[in-house]
Model the fold of this input.
Amino acid sequence: MPDAVAPNLVAAVDAARHWRDMMAMAEIGGFIDEAGHPGVNRPCLSPLDRQARRLLISWAEKAGLGVSVDRLGNLFLRHEGSAPGLAPVLTGSHMDSQPNGGRFDGIWGVIAGLEAVRALREAGVATKRPIEVVAWTNEEGGRYAPGCMGSMAYAGFAPPDTWDDVTDRDGIRWADALAEQLALEADIARRPLGVVEGQAPFAYVEAHIEQGPLLEAKEMDIGVVTGIQGSRWFVVELKGKSDHAGTTPLAMRKDAVQDMLRAINALNALMHDPKDVLRFTVASIEVQPNTSNSVAGLVRFTIDFRHPDNAVLQARGNAIEGVIQAAVRDCAVKVTERFHAVPVTFQPEVPDAVEAAARAQGLRHMRLPSGAFHDSQFMVPLCPTGMIFVPCRAGVSHHPSEYATPEALAAGARVLAQVLADLANR
Amino acid sequence: MPDAVAPNLVAAVDAARHWRDMMAMAEIGGFIDEAGHPGVNRPCLSPLDRQARRLLISWAEKAGLGVSVDRLGNLFLRHEGSAPGLAPVLTGSHMDSQPNGGRFDGIWGVIAGLEAVRALREAGVATKRPIEVVAWTNEEGGRYAPGCMGSMAYAGFAPPDTWDDVTDRDGIRWADALAEQLALEADIARRPLGVVEGQAPFAYVEAHIEQGPLLEAKEMDIGVVTGIQGSRWFVVELKGKSDHAGTTPLAMRKDAVQDMLRAINALNALMHDPKDVLRFTVASIEVQPNTSNSVAGLVRFTIDFRHPDNAVLQARGNAIEGVIQAAVRDCAVKVTERFHAVPVTFQPEVPDAVEAAARAQGLRHMRLPSGAFHDSQFMVPLCPTGMIFVPCRAGVSHHPSEYATPEALAAGARVLAQVLADLANR
Done:
């Protein structure tokens, strides 16, 4: 089957239904930005997140799938195989969005999984192995950092209680928000947590918009993802002293904003990369007391640092704290690493299956690594893993102007359907 | 009288009562910071602000003073003179605090005014002119910028509806918050708004902690304030584009945080002053979307720039926008000036009266300008104006560790009492 088109399966992927589902889901947390772009703001473990999950569950139940949830809130929709005891093929992504994010990031991989499974069932394509569509909890990390908590806990990458005391901006603890959600979803069957309490999947495949400009620029339909660059996230706290902005001579200040400037100037030098492969971003800043006429007594800022080469990721990442310590003048420095994912290369099985399906369906495809991290990263130690990318307009993501065409999404869902049928019959 | 001690008046200032009043008031909005310092967080037009005003009114009524409020919420406590038609001597300050501010800034000038008037009445010192103690609305500008709205409107510096559409961080409009407060204080007699609708005062004298280190360092009891340095406040908005931090090459970004860095680096150069007289502060920063893995699409930051020399204040302040425009690389720049107060020099009448009273009472005193701005700034065009400073520990203000001793405050209130008696009999 890998190299043969399954014509009835491909035809059963309903492009119009798939787009309708995407647009219906985008209304939950939907908003229009200043420029008129329709964005989505759907934080994990929020009422909007739960509303989106209920909509997904209603579709899954209508399609005859079994629904269950684990103790991290990861949500599973199960298509039964003819050999139900075999390890399932897992597909999916996440349903939470960035604050003021787009309509496709994450949610498309979940809805594409549902559409692919519906197509399999409607086309009467039997599979030996079960297929499960998963919606991982908190991939984005926008409300609770770090992201990928659901998949990390599933994979045993970190104990499930690791983030209990993490708080959101309103001071709500992760553990409390999660307990609230589980209580509100007590009617859904509970399942063991991934490999920690249960079974490893047979394979994992995640469909996602590229979130980069390459596929569009090269006029490709399908990206065969070969791996994911490494990411390290840090929070830097600079503790100075608040003083009256009108009376305190600059020489007597411990101004945390000025020390932040010194720190980021030095980090820009550390992270300089003429090839523009390295990604270094300071994107979140908190100032206290944050009033214009009181010198800043405290600043916290984040560092998002990524590189495909683990040697660079380790060397420059490990240099961050020393560079900041040397750069600041007046403040006490605290650097906390809160996320560290080394670069991964996918085993060949899933990328080969994706490539074979794209070729069989006559789609233009290319191999490429992922610049963004994904839940798939944490599946690599568990089972053969891969991803399917589709192009998105101008490579834009994490923004209301994020867009992928109905045709691009349908092509991705068709490839996914064939890959799932292939893997689930091995 | 100016050079004579009024022994019964000085004795009537009750240091213990004065300190008790200060500490009782500090409980309204009071909190203890991490280091154990007792701070105050009392935003203007808040329930805490109203609670503080009610406490002050209860004291004023007990002392036999007349209470009234104008359409900006400025609150007046009136000691009647033997010639009630004459222009009153005005004293006071403000009751709002900085976010996480101290227990003395502003509120001391109001309570010192009350204590001085109580002492006059208890000592039976008659005055020809009325004396009014004023609590100006929103001096700090912490909740609604700019500060000094109440005194600016009183003095006709700006029309009273100038700030109607200014919003706080919760999006509440100034006009709505003010209307709410006036409705809740409808039982208080309404009076005309300053020189806009009524009469100019005969003189204005404001008691305040120094908020700087000079008096303490020179072991002085009383600062005879000669004037106030000029202030200009700006808000800078940098509009870039939010993108995925993992996938977007740095060369393709419009990163508002990086342009903020370029802007402040350039401003630091513009504002460099080897003599450390110039005050340049960036103390409030807002980033959107402010999530660690989405490139910042928008940054707003504030500039607080002060100088005693108007030529420097104008030249460097006017250069700010051009310097930022030249420094940024990718963002659209919008610079808005939201406060502009030129340096003022007080006319000699009030400083001379303060100096005479301090000398008569045997207090160590010195002349000095104010680094902070104050409501008194806007009284200068209306009438002879001046201020009385008392030392505060290490010059710290706008912080919970702000402190002045009971003895220092009592000395200040005694000088104020004598100055009021002097001016109100001219």
In short: The longest helix of chain A spans residues 406-424. The domain at 230-341 of chain A is CATH 3.30.70.360 (Alpha-Beta Plaits). The radius of gyration of chain A is 23 Å.
